[in-house]
Amino acid sequence: MDRNQFLRPMGLGELLDSTVRLYKKNFLLLVTAQLPLAVFYLLQNAYSYSASGGQDSITELYQMFTDPFAYQVQQQFAPTPSPWYSTIIILLSFLQIAIIYPVTLSAVTKVASDSVLEGTADVKNAYRFSLRNWFRLGVTNVFITIALTIALLLAMIIPVTAAIAVVAFTLSTGSAGELIVGVIVIVVSIGIGAFIGGFAWVRLSATYPIMVNEKIFIVEAMTRSWNMVKGHTFRIYAALIIIFLIPSVIQLTSFFAEFLMKGSLVVMTIALGLVAQGLLIPMADCARVLIYFDLRTRKEGYDLEMRTQQLSQPVL
Amino acid sequence: MEDFTLSTSENVPVYYDIATAGSRCVAFLVDYSIILLASMGLIVTVDLLRQFGFTSFSSYAIALIYVVVGTLTWGYFVISELALNGSSIGKRMIGLRVIKEDATPIDLVDSLTRNFVRYIDLWPGTCLVGFVVMMLNAKSKRLGDYAAGTIVVRTRAVGLDKLELGESSYDDTVSRSPYLNQITSEEYQLMRDFLFRYEKIPFSKAYEIATKITSGIAEKLHIEPPRGIENCILFLKSCIKYYRHKP
Fold first, then answer.
1. How confident is the model over A273-282, as pLDDT tens digits?
2. Neighbours of B76 (CB within 10 A)
3. B127 touches chain A (CB under 8 A)
4. Is the dihedral of CA A125, A128, A129, A131 positive or negative?
5. What is the pLDDT of residue A261?
6. Within an 8 Å CB–CB cutoff, is residue B205 touching chain A?
7. What is d(CA A21, CA A29) in angstroms, rounded to the nearest whole number?
8. More confident: A113 or A83
9. Less packed terminus of chain A by CB within 10 Å, N or C?
10. Looking at the complex, does the CB of residue A242 fall below 8 Å from at least one CB of chain B?
11. How distant is the Cα of A301 from the closest Cα of chain B, in angstroms?
């Protein structure tokens, strides 16, 4: 009997390596399961791009700071977005948060979890589970989004307060030297704020694997995730940041290309975004699944329980 | 777990854990943070010295310092890989090591080669080439590894046997059982793992697992199963003490 290589307490490096292995092992299944969200992302971006007159690229943002006059002129001649634009964008965002994202994420999580536990996985079964529980998954995701938004807003109080203090001090003294120190203070406090905001994100990171594997939802699942991650927050924080950096590699490539070519590459940005969403985000979902099993083995002896069951069936 | 097996000349298999893009990403971030800090430190020092009137800094010396900064990436990896037996500081922190495909240590030429090709792996500044190549092969090799014939593996710390077995009231019963050799190596490993970790898991769960393991083993040994967690622990310790590996 082979021991399950994914069901064991793992260090940071082992966790990341196992994530990549699980992802590579189930690449096609994971990408297929992720497809609805990737297609939705493509449609959302295509609509946003066409309805807003081809704006929102990194080049426009760059131009806004480097050449504000040219930016204003360009904005004056840009086509006016449809009056329904904002409403449709809000509706699409809600649809994404309440249905598409939770259903897809739980399907991907189910594929990864089944692969860990049983060695095989099936996209059809994963979607059967997701669609059967779509309402509870959606409500949970809305709750998570609200909780993370509140955490982020609370965390942003620090940099906002710092910014107000710096501006007030600079205006009263009129010194340019303090302005540089002030900018550093603001940047550092944004970092601290983002770190605190990220803390809640990390604590809730096991919610989806809990919903998929234990069939508990909404507040119960969120509370269990919060308590499960407790005591391992920084290790998991590091693992998740590293894993989320990998899709960023792909997305950052288009930004690099835009800066180098000094032109808008919106199509390339969307294409690379689609690649990152469709091909690489499942890797982050695999990480969440492995984090969940790692925490269960550490805190609840889940691997020992499974091995005991396996041994007691045919041999003992 | 072990995804690279090498047979030595005596046909002894040696297993290695290949380091994937995941753990190598951590090592990469640590190493480049060190390089960035060192480069910034050098530039700031030179600038400060010039500001404080150290005009004796000739333009050649300044040019030399900038050459040092420019080649720091290459030099850092080559020097650290040679000094730390195939690891850089970041790799050592996460427990990784570069070896040749035949499991021998890398030499200067290997290190120079794999780190020269690093510049292609880094292209276009986001490591896209290296990442894609690593994801497309089973040994997670980047182009530099292909060029030098190297792989990056996980070095494992061997845990010392710290399990204190001591005297147990079950020693006599267990040692006299003629069915001791019925215990499999998987069961033995499970008993050990349980004894190492049972104090870290909730009592109710530990009790449940202990009961399941001991009842199974006791049945095999034709012994009355122990009751209560303390007795279960003593029983498992005796089983480990007198376990005989089946040939």
1. 777 777 888 9
2. 19
3. yes
4. positive
5. 67
6. yes
7. 14
8. A113
9. N
10. yes
11. 6
**Interface touch A301/B140, C-beta < 8 Å:** no
Cβ distance of A315 and B187 shorter than 8 Å? yes
- The pLDDT confidence band at residue A165, using thresholds 50, 70 and 90, is confident
Contact A301 B205 (CB under 8 A): yes
The pLDDT tens digits for B18-30 are: 999 999 999 999 9
Contact A246 B25 (CB under 8 A): yes
Q: Where are the alpha helices (DSSP H) in A52-132?
A: 58-66, 68-77, 85-95, 101-118, 123-132
One-letter amino acid at A21 equals: R
Q: Please give the single-letter amino acid code of residue A74.
A: Q
Cβ of B219 within 8 Å of Cβ of A311? The answer is: no
Helix segments in chain A, DSSP class H: 12-25, 27-51, 58-66, 68-77, 85-95, 101-118, 123-132, 134-173, 176-203, 207-214, 218-229, 233-261, 266-275, 281-300, 302-312
**pLDDT the model gives residue B2:** 46
**Which residue is it, tokens 């509706």?**
A91
Going by C-alpha positions, the residue among A249, A226, A252, A229 that lies closest to residue A239 is A229
What tokens does A263 get? 């032109």
Buried b or exposed e, range A122-135, using 16+ CB within 10 angstroms = ebeebbebbeebee
Cβ neighbors of A214 (< 8 A, separation 6 or more) are A221, A224
- pLDDT band at A79; cut points 50, 70, 90: low
User: Between A and B, how many residue pairs show a Cβ–Cβ distance under 8 A?
Assistant: 117
Q: Model pTM? A: 0.85
Cβ contacts of B124 on chain A, cutoff 8 Å: 253, 256-257, 260
Contacts of B135 in chain A (CB under 8 A): 20, 24
| Residue A269 CB coordination number (10 Å) | 22
CB atoms within 10 A of CB B198: 20
> Which of A228, A268, A310, A316 to mutate to test binding with chain B, by most B CBs within 10 Å of its CB?
A316
The ipTM value here is: 0.84
Task: Kindly state whether A20 is in contact with chain B, defined as any CB-CB distance less than 8 angstroms.
Answer: yes
The sheet carrying B13-18 orders its strands as B4-7, B13-18, B150-154, B96-100
Tally Cβ neighbours within 10 Å of residue A195.
12
Tokens read off for A160: 């906002």
Phi, psi of A70 (to 5 degrees): -60, -35
Which residues between 11 and 40 in chain B have a beta carbon less than 8 angstroms from any beta carbon of chain A? 17-23, 25-26, 29
Using an 8 Å Cβ cutoff, are A214 and A184 in contact? no
Distance of CA A222 to the CA centre of its chain: 16
Strands B96-100 and B150-154: antiparallel
The string of DSSP codes covering B143-167 is HHHHHHTEEEEEPPPPPP-------
Q: Kindly list the residues from chain A whose CB atom is less than 8 angstroms away from the CB atom of residue B221.
A: none
pLDDT tens-digit series, residues A234-255: 999 999 999 988 877 777 777 7
Average pLDDT rounded to a whole number, residues A283-289: 94
Contact A249 B127 (CB under 8 A): yes
Q: Chain A interface, mutation test: which of B126, B129, B219, most A Cβ atoms within 10 Å?
A: B126
Assigned token pair, B115: 């780190």
Structure tokens at A207: 């919610």
